[in-house]
Design brief:
By secondary structure, this protein is mainly β. The chain has strands at residues 10-14, 18-22, 24-31, 34-39, 42-57, 62-75. It has a six-stranded antiparallel sheet, with no helix packed on it.
Length: 85
């Protein structure tokens, strides 16, 4: 079975108050101080305060977060292994 084509991934932060992301496939957690997003390059955690999800299009892989952005953390994607590995 062929895997879906990975969406291009990019993050742009404007004035620490607006984050635009491409390559998003899922928002796995949303809190006022933390947003966790699954992207084509692994998991991304956005840290801040008063965070609000302003735009989300999983079909296009885009999202916009507004608030006070204080950090961005990348986690490596988990590589799946066979049963006996």
């Amino acid at each position: 079975m062929e895997e879906p084509k990975a969406l291009p991934h990019r993050i742009t932060v404007e004035e620490c108050g607006k984050l635009t992301m491409t390559g998003a496939s899922e928002v796995s957690r949303f809190e006022e101080d933390q947003v966790e997003v699954v992207t084509s390059r692994g998991n991304v955690t956005v840290l801040g305060a008063e965070l609000k999800l302003r735009c989300l299009s999983l079909e296009e892989g885009t999202l916009v977060i507004q608030g006070r952005i204080t950090g961005i953390i990348y986690d490596e994607p988990v590589k799946r292994r066979g049963f006996f590995r």
